[in-house]
Records
---
Amino acid sequence: MRAARNLMEVRGVSLRFGGIQALDSVDLDVAEGSITAIIGPNGAGKSSLYNVISGMYRPAAGTVTFDGRDITRVPAHKRAGLGIARSFQNIALFRGLTVVDNIKLGAHSRLNTGLMSALLFRGRAAAEEEQLRREIEREVIEFLEIDHIRDMPVSALSYGLQKRVELARALALRPKIIMLDEPVAGMNREETEDIARFILDMKEELGITVLLIEHDLSMVMDISDHVAVLNFGKLVANGTPHEMQNHPKVIEAYIGKTDAEPTPEETDA
């Protein structure tokens, strides 16, 4: 069976804030059609890496390649047009708008009408708007099972449903890759299981590649194909979830050095 190609490659990425080395020569491969998780303790550099990948920060060194194209210097808004969608740890929805209107905002880069047509909402703009609404209903609202709240203002929703709407807004872009930043933070077990199911369905049914930052290690190990571990801005380990569960570098990153006996590989080194 032929290995999947890398949809995204991060090579030698470094980032500094004054005297702080936020990222130190980080390499990361994200295989097409995979769920790749980035884990590590608070302050490890996970969000900094996300901000470099999404174009919010420009690295001091290194490159980011997406779908065969070097995007290191491509502005953030243009990366969305290339098929990179992102959700945020803190909910970033327009609370006064309805669910469906928030979701439509995620697809703005797909529209081709000019400014005047859009403002006047006639002709081509009206046709595109109607087509977009139908696509959102079919491809996003039904997929995430939120039809019952579609016309409600976001401010009236529970935290768990707001997180689902934010996920829907990212999906409305029709991304090739979706970057999720702690999608189940603050959720109860039932809500977490729902989001985990949707993430798996995005991969398996929609063919979307998923890049995931998450502190819920149980969920990470259950749904991920590949896990990368950051600590103090460095990639300290990466591999399958099974390989990472008992990896000494992973244990050290989370609980500090231990007095555990060395592995045979360490003894031979």
---
Amino acid sequence: MCLKQTVLTASLLTPLMLVGPWTSAEEKHEHDQDKGHRQHGSHVHGIAALNLALEGREVQIELDSPAANIVGFEHAPSSEADHAALDKAVAMLEDGDRLFKFNDNAGCRMETAKVASELLDEEHEGHAEEKTGEHAHEAKERHDHEDHEGEGEGEGETHSEIEATYHFECNAPGKLTQLTIELFEAFPGMEKLKVQYVIESEQGAAELTATDHTVKF
């Protein structure tokens, strides 16, 4: 499956308006664009963040993870193996009903899923440049040069994120009591997930691992 077909958009849904000291996905995106690379202090391999909000019958989920947790690398994709890993990761991330399992009697089903990452943007640009021959070669040389510069300076180390947003509809939102998250099974590089949620007027937080991956509301 072509990544161009699986990536729904390069931008997130409207950020969650949640109560609490959270930075919205839009604010983080603008901050990252200013810096050129995503190198915020919360970028720790193995750890990801998830925000969840229920309003009425709608559940919105935002996942923000270092790319290394999802695909095993954070450099611009340069090989068939890299592109294949991204294809597989995006397909798995888009399968929200598999990754997020609400208690059955709440009747929640995924309506939409969107995945965004600077790695996906660069891959798309790379495929477009391949059609021009020499441009593709020049782009590869530029990426190789940037990678070598990053190896020589700690400040040049590449940090890339993968973000995904999901919209679920629940037939009986009043019966929503828990969510089991299967990210650890899908992505072995994921070691810890920091969850914050707002269920109507109730707020809470949890820290999940592969052996304890259910949030109870």
